[in-house]
Amino acid sequence: MFDLIMANFAMHISLTPAEADYVQSVLQHKVVKKNALLLSAGDICRAIYFVNKGCLRIFNIDREGDQYNISFCPENWWSVDIASFFGQSPAFYSISALEDTDVFYLGHAAIEKLFIEVPKFERFFRILTQNGFNLYQRRITSNLSKTAEERYLQFQKQYPKLEQRIAQKQIASYLGITPVFLSMLRRNKQTTNR
């Protein structure tokens, strides 16, 4: 049950058997149904989520009700509105499930206690935050400087096989294009690959 998340931790820190037992004892688990919200913008983000199976999305809704996907979080990814979670302030983003999703999560108090009980987790979450910040900076630069086709190819590279699992409108929202334009990009790509 804990294999994937423990392997994720092992990417950046080495845990003793006692530390591994401790983190497993504080991790909470739940299954989130497709389309269910884990966080609504304006609420306080109370947990940081690890996707064990399924896919979450982080998104924002503008005044007209249009949704903008900021990030997809498939298996082995973390999902959080980081400013809301660590500042315990109202969230700017919402988080929902794109398919039935199995998550592990840590609440704010649990993670603060984890930092004290197993200090190396501060290092793990610092690296996670740095990697996330780097990802967002690259995404902003990509949106400003790359064509829709280049962004689509980058999406395919960053999220291999996700395209077959989620709705075209979700991908189009992430790329900043219409679903019709995405269909055209896909057709052009299929034609060039023949």
From TrEMBL:
Q: Which SUPFAM superfamilies match?
A: cAMP-binding domain-like (SSF51206)
User: From what superkingdom does this record's organism come?
Assistant: Bacteria
Its protein name is Crp/Fnr family transcriptional regulator
Q: Where does the Cyclic nucleotide-binding domain lie?
A: 11-115
Question: Which organism encodes this protein?
Answer: Mucilaginibacter ginsenosidivorax
Q: Which Pfam families match?
A: cNMP_binding (PF00027)
Under CDD domains, the record lists: CAP_ED (cd00038)
Please give the InterPro entries that the UniProt record associates with this protein: cNMP-bd_dom, cNMP-bd_dom_sf, RmlC-like_jellyroll
